[in-house]
Known about the structure:
- Chain A: This is DUF3732 domain-containing protein.
- By secondary structure, chain A is an alpha/beta fold.
- Chain A is 48% helix and 10% strand.
- Chain A is built from 18 helices and twelve strands.
- Residues 288-299, 309-316 and 415-419 of chain A have low confidence and may be disordered.
- In chain B, strand 2 (106-109) and strand 3 (112-115) form a beta hairpin.
- The model of chain B has no long low-confidence stretch (mean pLDDT 86).
- Chain B is mostly helical.
- The interface between A and B is large, with 52 and 43 residues.
Amino acid sequence: MSIVTGASKTGKSSLIDIIDFCMGGSECHVADGVIRRFVSWYGVLFDRGDTGIFVARRNPPPGQSRSPDIYLETGDKLASPDFDKLTKNITVDALEAFLTSALGISENLHSVPEGQTRQPLSANVRHALLFSLQDQDEIDSRRVLFHRQSEPFMPQAIKDVLPYFLGAIDEERLRRQSELDNARRELRKLEKREAQRDAVESLSLSRTNDIYREAQAAGLVGSGPVPPIEQALAVLRAVGPAVDEGISEPDVQQPLGQLRAERRRIRAQLAQVREEIRQAREIEEAAGGFMDEVHEQAARLLPIGLLPNSPSEPHSCALCGSELHESIPSAEEIRSTLEEVGGQLEKVRREVPRLQNLQVDLIQRQAAIEAALRENQRQIDDLVAKEGQFRSEQDARLRRARTAGRIAYFLETLPANEDDTNRDGALDALRKKIGALAELLDPDEVRDRLASIVNVIGAYMSEYSDRLDLEHSGSNLRLDIRTLAVVADTIDGPVPLNRMGSGENWVGYHVLAHLSLHKWFRQKRRPVPAFLIFDQPSQAHYPPERDSNGDVSILQDADREAVYKLFKLIADVAAELSPGFQIIVIDHADLKDPWFSGAVVERWRGEALVPPAWIS
Amino acid sequence: MLPWGDRPLEEASLFNPVFCALLLRATVKEHRAAAKTPLSFPLAFLVLPFALHEKTRLALPASARTMMTSWLVDHPELVAGFGERARRMADTTREAIQFGCHYSLLRIEGAGLDVGKRTVKPEPANLAENTEEARACYAAARLLGKWLASGGTVPTVMSLWGVSP
């Protein structure tokens, strides 16, 4: 717990707006006043345990709320850089993408139920941040539970992303969804082909190819690849029933050779695509180590090998690694730069490359290539079978006559071929696969999981509520994610937050809900920023107008007790979830107890966010 | 590195030290023009895996106005394999730096790399005999020079590319 305490108008509440702006907000909401007039850049240093991320944004000029200038820096043991280093090196969109990936948000998409017109929504850092901030008007609101929930369209967006952040939606879901779409497309294609085979008047490309190759094998038409269908049919029509004695020996080897060459080409493509998929998965697994401690080492930056293996080696050249008899000054300098940079980077994580979309493309390409391979194999099989037939038939003339007859028959009717049982098998297999995938993607399952997660969070809330004197303390509390509100289940029926009375209940339930949510987020290592900011949680008992140097002894016993209990609960939960979690409390109150004063990081009485010296 | 004569012909000529040193020089020169400082030594090892990789070249923006950080965030598929490519090219880069310094195309200045004394006329990048591909390599190297001049601190840049020295 870190506490910023102080008088009104010292810039305490602007901290939330500054953090929001530096985490990719499109507009700067810092109120007009001293801060807007005397600050040129806002900066936030994020501590990821092993690495730091520093983001600074230029204060928009007076009267404007947007500014494109952003400076990003990452590194081990990072401190806020000097002012003169701040220059634009990243755009707002790229910053958002960077933070989204740094937070570990995998690709995800909330698919919109059929019949609704809104765009599908992909959760990003901006959504994750909604659960980490509570400004002073939100924390005591009876209608609004989450940050920015009162803005238009925001309640729907919060409802859409909440299942992902709670972990009710499997990370694999997007990939499975694309596999399912693919399989469905394939099924439709197969079914359509099935239907076409039954229709007498439909021209099947593959049938024409077959008969054309058969004609080639019988020597009735010239060799070479099969021309487009119209041309192929014209050539076949020109064959006619009469058999020319002078036609050369049938050559099945030539078309077979072509097919086999093509197969080798397709195989090579397939191998390449499979290799790309394997690499993508490998990189994802290695770099995606944020889920998996075992891969932590692999998730480190890939060393290029500039540093010699043992840095204590006395005189080896930093340039070539070979021994030196006397050290060259610049080589020494280079070595020290290398070691310095290497040290700074030692603990830096590789950002998780977001490769799932790439994989989806690759999987689609793989499916197409595999289909081409199957088609090629079928043609080869047909041709080989016919070759066998040729051998068994002794009279070449008869053979050609037979082929010519088949061509004539084909041209006359272009009928459906005899039933191909193999194709039925493929259809069945595909249907089974679709069934299995659809089951994995069952929306009921997401609902069930969500219900169970919400129950667990409700249990945390009920447990914590015992430690505050709220109207419904001790009854069953739950988060209603359809209405985005806290509901107490009492013997007289459910009571939602907006039907409870008094400001202390409203603040209390906001605090309970957010503490419990973050307990869940941390336990499940969900990609939500591991901090929580409460602005003025004491306001129901110790309103700003009663502030006298933060002293709460002027309050009545009941109020003083309530303020104490609320802060104590926040401090205890912060301790419970640490390390790796921070609660920032911004308030007027300044308790004398050691656990409170020990957590105070700033005390702005006379001082302020903008030092008086900057103003004068 | 294998002795010159033992290298496979294709590898030896594609990654020959003259061409590589000239690419490095192109990056260093742009960097010097934009940042007024030598190119920090570790960053020199980004040049060859960047400029000699065809898929990377094809994905590059037309002008340096697109910020490097933005481009990196938009192309995870190219960044993902970069560390491995950089590792494979490290020896080649070292050789190119030694070669470049020997012939004064490059110069070691403090802890960085700078343009050497030798003036090369006409500018190798503008030779009429250059293939389309060679021209694209020079263009990529120059773009990287501009990018590195404004990309942020050395650790920031290297961690965005996913590599360490």
